[in-house]
């Protein structure tokens, strides 16, 4: 019988064994090729084989969040697995929550917040397991789950809430202070006020790098946007942080087609939490619509056949088929003028937004260069005004921002799972004056690349449970 010993730390774990077959198995099954490895110059020059390795066969090291995968492999070879857990000991002040957990801290003037069954399960799973992924649709109340986790922390605990965008950081900070969390600090562009619980953008956390060694609890909002080199370097430096929770409606950006991103998420944080309150063990958009938690949806694609771009490469097809396509612009404008309520139009490029704003002069046009105050004014109009039209670059409203729109027009195209699901999520939030979202998209038949992406968007929406119709 072979010997296997695993020593586990907060960031990395190490396997020692005399079984070379086990080492070989782990090495071969925990290495994956990047989605676009063949475009990489190092691969073309034969300096790299295109693989990212998640098990180091020389050192026996792996990211601690991959422990379930490593243990499963070990137990296929032997039952004799010794685990030496050297992770920092951490105990939550509150061991479990119930549906009325937030009743006493409900802000003045707001309805009492009763936790849903799946929210209770996700909070308690976070407390019990101390690391993992909260995987739930937009508007499922992930912000309330994060708030509740923070309320369960012991006094004086050092926690870091990390996100990619300043707008999202401000939204989270305002929510936590409104709900009475104490000792909440903030670090983002122009603001450097750390505290026991610090809400920060990853771009500004370098200002507080000296604080990273004290962080015991890490919450990462919209993890699909937080797996580039900069946030991964932060995760590596949190060597004394045993509690690591990631949150997203789309944690694995491209599903199983991008195993690199998927295994980095699982490696730094752990697997997605399962819940008993749904048949599948995960919370779905369709189920929340049936519960009335999300708006019903009507998805309509209008065909675009002009101009003919049969032989254009992708970037030129986007430029000529979306950004400079006056026929497309006119169709978007006509549809917008027939709508009532709050309408959000998403575009991919500035020139496209400029063209639409010129045709709809009373529309609000928000883009990357606009300051926080301007963005917040637009967000508030999309939350409260009876009738409002806003045009925005997709990056601003793709993720995390709370708006309550009646109509969402996707004029930005695209094919990535996380982008389409996140965009749709912007419109599914419920409001007192809204019971259905009209989602409008476009089915391009004038170019092979644009056509392929249109088919992908239809497929993604249908997979999420939405009814889709395509109109000539």
Please describe the topology of this protein:
Layout: E1 4-8, E2 12-17, H1 20-29, E3 31-33, H2 41-44, E4 51-53, E5 61-63, H3 67-77, E6 81-85, H4 117-129, E7 131-135, H5 142-151, E8 159-163, H6 166-178, E9 184-188, E10 191-193, E11 197-201, E12 217-221, H7 229-237, E13 243-248, H8 259-269, H9 285-291, E14 296-304, H10 314-323, H11 326-337, E15 342-347, H12 350-359, E16 364-366, H13 372-384, E17 388-393, H14 394-397, E18 407-410, H15 417-427, E19 436-444, H16 448-463, E20 468-471
Describe the structure concisely for a colleague.
The protein has 472 residues and is of the alpha/beta class. It has helices spanning 20-29, 41-44, 67-77, 117-129, 142-151, 166-178, 229-237, 259-269, 285-291, 314-323, 326-337, 350-359, 372-384, 394-397, 417-427, 448-463, and strands spanning 4-8, 12-17, 31-33, 51-53, 61-63, 81-85, 131-135, 159-163, 184-188, 191-193, 197-201, 217-221, 243-248, 296-304, 342-347, 364-366, 388-393, 407-410, 436-444, 468-471.
Tags for this entry?
alpha/beta; 472 residues; Rossmann fold; 3 domains; 16 helices; Translation Initiation Factor Eif1; 7-stranded parallel β-sheet
């Amino acid at each position: 019988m072979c010997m296997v010993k695993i020593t586990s730390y907060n960031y990395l774990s190490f396997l020692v064994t005399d079984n070379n077959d086990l080492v070989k198995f782990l090495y071969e099954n925990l290495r994956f090729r990047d989605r676009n490895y063949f475009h990489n110059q190092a691969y073309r020059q034969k300096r790299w084989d295109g693989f990212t390795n998640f098990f180091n066969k020389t050192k026996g090291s792996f990211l601690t969040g991959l422990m379930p995968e490593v243990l499963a492999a070990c137990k296929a070879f032997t039952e004799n697995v010794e685990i030496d857990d050297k992770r920092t000991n951490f105990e939550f002040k509150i061991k479990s929550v119930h549906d009325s957990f937030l009743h006493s801290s409900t802000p003045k003037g707001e309805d009492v917040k009763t936790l849903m069954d799946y929210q209770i399960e996700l909070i308690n799973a976070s407390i019990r397991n101390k690391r993992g992924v909260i995987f739930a649709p937009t508007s499922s109340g992930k912000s309330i789950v994060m708030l509740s986790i923070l309320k369960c922390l012991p006094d004086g605990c050092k926690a870091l809430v990390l996100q990619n965008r300043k707008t999202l950081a401000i939204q989270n900070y305002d929510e936590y202070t409104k709900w009475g969390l104490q000792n909440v600090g903030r670090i983002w562009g122009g603001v450097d006020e750390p505290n026991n619980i610090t809400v920060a953008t990853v771009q500004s956390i370098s200002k507080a790098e000296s604080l990273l060694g004290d962080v015991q609890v890490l919450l990462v909002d919209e993890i699909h946007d937080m797996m580039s080199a900069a946030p991964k370097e932060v995760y590596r430096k949190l060597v004394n942080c045993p509690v690591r929770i990631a949150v997203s409606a789309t944690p694995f950006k491209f599903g199983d087609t991008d195993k690199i991103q998927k295994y980095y998420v699982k490696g730094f944080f752990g697997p997605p939490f399962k819940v008993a309150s749904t048949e599948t063990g995960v919370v779905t958009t369709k189920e929340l619509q049936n519960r009335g938690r999300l708006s019903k949806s009507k998805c309509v694609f209008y065909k675009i056949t002009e101009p003919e771009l049969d032989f254009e490469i992708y970037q030129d097809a986007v430029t000529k088929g979306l950004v400079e396509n006056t026929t497309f612009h006119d169709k978007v404008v006509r549809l917008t003028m027939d709508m009532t309520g709050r309408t959000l139009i998403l575009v991919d490029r500035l020139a496209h937004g400029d063209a639409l704003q010129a045709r709809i002069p009373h529309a609000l046009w928000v883009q990357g260069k606009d300051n926080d105050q301007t963005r917040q004014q637009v967000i508030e109009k999309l939350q409260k005004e009876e009738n409002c039209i806003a045009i925005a670059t997709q990056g601003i409203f793709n993720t995390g921002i709370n708006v309550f729109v009646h109509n969402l027009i996707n004029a930005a195209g695209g094919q990535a799972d996380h982008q389409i699901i996140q965009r749709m999520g912007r419109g599914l939030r419920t409001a007192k004056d809204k019971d259905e979202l009209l989602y409008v998209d476009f089915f391009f038949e004038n170019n092979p690349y644009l056509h392929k992406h249109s088919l992908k968007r239809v497929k993604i929406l249908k997979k999420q449970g939405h009814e889709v119709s395509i109109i000539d």
